[in-house]
# Entry
Amino acid sequence: MNTKTRDGIKAYTPLSLKLYDWWVLRVSNRYAWKCATERHLIPHFRNNMKNNHLDVGVGTGYYLTYTPDSCTISLLDLNISSLEAANARVGRNRVKASILHDVFEPYPSNLQEQFDSVSMFYLLHCLPGEMSDKAEVIAHASSALTKEGCLFGATILGDEAGHNVFGRKLMKIYNKKGIFSNRTDSAEGLASLLTRYFHHVEIVVEGRVALFKAERKKEMMLAE
# Structure
């Protein structure tokens, strides 16, 4: 396992995943990050997912339960507990592939230019380093997209977003433990990162969360 990503995934144990939907999607999203799951995140997922889809950083597989039965779903994560939880939730018969993989590493050749859409929900803020250090992650995800494919997702912004008392407390705890690495993350930094790899980028900030969509990928550049 790449040491870069160890801290970000260690919180996702079988026990914590049982509490994830309640704590993150109901409590934290509504009261800390001010971005209600039902109002903002679910529609963002449903509106951008396409027929052949790869979900990266799968959590519990929550958003995938909102996909049409006609969609082909693949999963990619470094945490085996998350993959197992998502498989169980979505239904193993609906999952085409379940891939144990570090997002900082290039995707396997059989995943190159295969997907119409790739989602990253609450992944970027869990990855180590500044926003610019996560360029490899975006580069590798773009390599899995078809020419007309779409990368979309959501990430919690840093200190400059103006968190409330609850949000500041969670930010302090999560960043200290290495679960988050997002103190300096901004919508501007995210836009700069995405425009390195895509011609068309849209970012909407809801509360303290940036909802992003990137399309029309550029000729592949390897992250330095």
In short: DSSP finds seven helices and seven strands in the chain. The mean pLDDT is 93.
